[in-house]
Amino acid sequence: MKTDTLKAQLKRTLRRDLWIAVAPATLLIALAFAVTFYFVKPAPPKTLVMALAPEEGGFNYMAKRYQKFLAQHGVTLELRNTKGSVGSVALLSAEDSGVDIAFAQSGTTGGKGQEVPEHVASLGSLAYVPLWVFYRGEPVDDVRGLQGKRIAVGPEDSGTRALAMTLLQANKVDTAPTELLPLDRDAAIDALTQGKVDAVFLVSSAESPRIQKLAAVKDVRLLSFTRAEAYTRRYPYLSRHVLPQGVFDFAKDVPDRDVVLLSPNALLLAKDSLHPALAYLLMRAASEIHGSAGILDKTGEFPAPLAAGFPLSSEAKRYYATGVPLLQRYLPFWAANLVDRLWVMLVPIIAVVVPLGRAVPAVFLWRVRSRIHRWYARLKEIEIQLEEDPDQEMLQDMLKRLEEAEREVNRIAVPIAYAENLYFFREHVDVVRRRLTRRLAGAPEHKDAHPLQMPA
């Protein structure tokens, strides 16, 4: 029965010591992880919303390819159609629109004059989407030759209209008697071929079947910008290109001469709050989709950090400087993102958990030893009194106190792993007891008697 009582006492004591050692460490670890979690990046959303004008710059075809690529990595791309690049940028810049990314034409804004919308950044240029000016009548070498004509400049909010108005206003041919008509792409092409308008402005890739078909229509000319270099100096988001003679149709020699074109770029824009992991995934998609050669594009030329009228995002800067992040090169998207998010958790593990893992056992050992070590004060007190030449009565009292200390220590609950501390104390009790016994018997103390040395 007494043994069971001692075992129960031992368990209670060990639990108390363990809690005293572990509880503060647990609280510190929890606090460290809580602070770290505050800085852990949230998981990227599984759905993205893209704004685009389906009839502008081949954006609808691009969007379908992005949908397929993102779906392979567990991300759904939802499309929201607009009337043009201006409308797409305006929707992207609106806080409550729900739009995350957009295709747009370089040089367009969100409808606030020439101001670049806040919180919108570029992930890069994707392709050249040239400005095509088709017209009827005598040859002209620049848009200034369209003074007084009926010109289809594209619908409101379209990137085509924004660029057309920039060039027409620069040449002061945007006012009467010039007539500007807000026709969409197909209506403008039909009106030109039927002779209802004198000229049309179109922004589209050189691979567009509509452009190549229109270039072959009899009595329809394609304007060659003789001052293209001057335009690119004034408007950095434009670039000069030469469409080679016969590139559309060698047999029919379409076009029948080299044509100098002005070209904005197709842009991939994003809110500056877009999750970094998704930004890198989108740029990986851009590299795969837009990396091949075209009539005007060279292999590997796109995506590129070209001047676009929008600031380049920080992720885009790193991507174009160093490429795909290391984790995304070798791990699936979800795994790379998980490792990247949890990487910061190494901070509390290294800074807190490892040191505390060493400290907790030391604290527990100190708790166990402290219950024994405090009785060494009784032994030391008796040893000091022995040096004062006590009488027999004092020696008997000292022996009685020594035996009492030994009994009390024997009742201390000590784990088996730390029992050596208890036996060290007993050895030291025997040392003091032998000195007392010899003194009581009147025998001289042996030279091997020595002061107590506590165990380490």
From TrEMBL:
Transmembrane portions of the chain: 18-40, 342-366
InterPro entries, alphabetized: TRAP_TAXI
Highest taxon, organism lineage: Bacteria
Keywords: Membrane, Transmembrane, Transmembrane helix
PANTHER family given in the database record: SLL1037 PROTEIN (PTHR42941)
Protein name (record): C4-dicarboxylate ABC transporter substrate-binding protein
